[in-house]
């Protein structure tokens, strides 16, 4: 508001009007700055100055108070907005406040030339840490942190007893260990990634070098643990098991598995079914979920399935330092199970 008065603007006459459509692109705290429209008129009749009269730093600071999604949309408003959106002022606000310490723990250095480039790099390509057993990425629309705990990072009962479980490279992948530049770390896990040198890696179904395959157990127990400080504050999260089933998988349809997510006094529980009827299509699965109360898997675009285990809200108040416990259990039925292939557990914002 100070900057607006300095340049002769009054809140009631701020120079933005919609032409044809209903709003809304976003609000910046001092009136409607832009509206979702096929064309936006900048400036007003009578010779009053337009938005270009405001310094770029003022526009950038205002845009940084919105969201990554709205910032990208705002670049269509005017040339001044496009220039402001590209500034580090905007994207530094959208990046996690503790990103410097996170990058210091990364398995490989992360190269970037601007904060905007870094933001989208983290949205599109997770960084690996803890010797390749965990990943961090950012949610594109909000900038909230997302994590993936690999199967090796989980606590799986009997996982090191080779008659019950085995650790193998993803059976559907063509993963190979190659030495790459820092800017292309773990590129061989990604589908269709073209390298600067002209090489193209083959599709690999898992981003991790190995997965856990269930051979035969009657006691299924899986836990994941991490500190709530890792998460973005004031954000609702959901935890998803990322898995596949082999063609010969049995014993995972009944009884249903018990899933839970706990943080402090919060506790979210679900009854889930890892192996719903193979003859059901997606619509029937949704109907079955409504009828039984059991959560069923959903297909992902990367060749895996996911199932929601539970949710939590990270308040992120000062001094909060609690452990998040995620679990999946089936220990009561006594049924033998096999054919479950686990990539890990993903924790991401829940819209």
Description:
The protein is an alpha+beta fold. The chain has eight helices and 19 strands. The chain folds into two domains: 2-93, no CATH class; 128-349. The protein has helices at 2-6, 56-63, 68-74, 79-85, 88-94, 99-105, 115-124, 282-292, and strands spanning 16-18, 26-27, 32-34, 40-42, 127-129, 134-138, 145-150, 155-156, 165-168, 211-214, 220-227, 235-250, 257-263, 266-272, 294-295, 298-299, 305-314, 323-330, 338-349. A hairpin with a 4-residue loop joins strand 2 and strand 3. The longest helix has 11 residues, at 282-292. The chain starts with a helix and ends with a strand. The model is unreliable at 1-45, 173-204 and 281-287 (pLDDT under 50). InterPro entries: F-box-like_dom_sf, PP2-like.
Structural shape: elongated
Number of contiguous helices: 8
- Straight-line distance between termini: 32 Å
Structural class: alpha+beta
In N-to-C order, the SSE pattern is HEEEEHHHHHHEEEEEEEEEEHEEEEE
Number of strands: 19
The radius of gyration over CA amounts to 24 Å
- Multimeric state: single chain
Question: Overall mean pLDDT score?
Answer: 77
Q: Supply the number of structural domains.
A: 2
